[in-house]
Every structure is written in structure tokens, then in C-alpha cells.
Amino acid sequence: MSLTAFAALALAAAAALFAGGAQAQCALCRTALGDAGDAAARAMNLGILVLLIPPVAIFCTIFAVAYKKGKGDGRQ
Q1: Which of 16, 55, 65, 76 has the highest CB neighbour count under 10 A?
Q2: Total domains in the fold of the chain
Q3: Domain range for residue 56?
Q4: Could you tell me where the beta strands, DSSP code E, fall in 1-76?
Q5: pLDDT tens digits, 10-29
Q6: Alpha-carbon distances of 19 from 10, 36, 51, rounded to whole Å
Q7: Whole-angstrom Cα distance, residue 29 to residue 44?
Q8: DSSP summary character for residue 25
Q9: 1 burial class (0-12, 13-18, 19+ CB within 10 angstroms)?
Q10: Would you say residue 34 lies in a domain?
């Protein structure tokens, strides 16, 4: 695993661990969960974060491939 990929994974893990205070709900979700309680709101926040993982992984993969292609390996 390259240093860049490791750094990206470490950053994603840190963001997921410290996202407790983040307001990860849209206004409609917050209104719908207003009377549901803290447990439901936390479950919704976790679900939003879990659904964020695939697009971020795809973006990071495309970026890493583009970076490696752009950097090249020095051969002609």
C-alpha cells in the first residue's frame, strides 16, 4: 500500500471516528427525526456516513490511477 493511499485511508478513518458532533443530516431528515430520539438520529448519521464510503473510495481510486498515469514511471 502506498503512502498516499494509507494517508487517505487514515484521514477517512479519523473523519469517521470524530464525526459525532457533525451535523450530517439534511433539513428534511432532521425534521423527520425530530421526535424520534437520539438513537434514531445517531443511526441516521451513521447510515449517511456509510453511504458516503463508496463514492469517496471511487474518487480516491480514480485520483490515484490518474496520479500514477500522470507521474509515469520514467521509461520511454
Answers
A1: 16
A2: 1
A3: 24-70
A4: none
A5: 888 877 777 665 555 577 77
A6: 14, 20, 14
A7: 8
A8: -
A9: exposed
A10: yes
